[in-house]
Amino acid sequence: MIKQLEAHFQEIQNEIIDHYCDFETKKSCTISDDNWTRAKGGGGRTFVLENGRFFDKAAVNFSSISGTKLPESAREYIKNKKAISYKAMGVSVITHPKNPFIPTSHMNIRLFLLLNNKKEIIEWWVGGGYDLTPYFAYEKDCLMWHRDAKLNFDHFNKKYYKKFAKNCDDYFFLPHRNEKRGIGGVFFDNFNDLELDASIKLLKNTARTYLKSYLKIIGLRKSRKYSSKDKDFQEYRRGRYAEFNLLFDRGTSFGLQSGGRVESILASLPPKASWVYKKDKSFEKNEKNLLLSLKKKWRG
To answer: Which active-site residues does the annotation give?
Structure first.
């Protein structure tokens, strides 16, 4: 049963890797493809493209870990006191394209299982979602991103998209900046409204909808020329991405608290980010325009 569940996540990882490798070659970037295990139980595969012709960095990671000491970030959800161990598996994706007119993207899908002393599943939930972090926001892209998400979740329940889109806006928020991280998407956690098989289907559809939508945006923006000033602004705003991942991201917290592989957990961070104190007029103009887009309610 566990192996079958893991296979679903590995299938999604392979699909996304295949598509992202279409933008690079072995000569155009540094490719890391690491299969790893950990002493505490479990392992995974970390796949990273770096310093490429198209991607500054893209990471597509699969992990399936187990343990007996439940991470603090998961304890609040646990109801069944007979659980003596857990199994957590998932796929996480982050892209940092070289071209600043192509947004950063993030997606993850995950399954958390609680097991009894016979290794039987006695409680479970799924979580995941995806979001978009543009540096130069295009209305067409933002509307399409949310439209595709709504179409996907409407197949399961017409109430899901509105709920998950609001969750995303609320979650990917930097309170110390009073800013959303991006233009949103969908986010759900501790979810077991559906049967397990249907929940796995929801996760796989979520991942494939993310990929389809993001590839469309890439196709629209990849030929846009950019200047060194545009690149500087991208790296400045990537600082916000790093702040969120290190300060507020639950996946980062869970990974570190569960004794996960630090290199894989922090693979989501951009290769370069900056924190500029004195901004010139072009930075101020770009940031003003971006913040107006981030404040819009893109969800339907």
So the answer is: 106
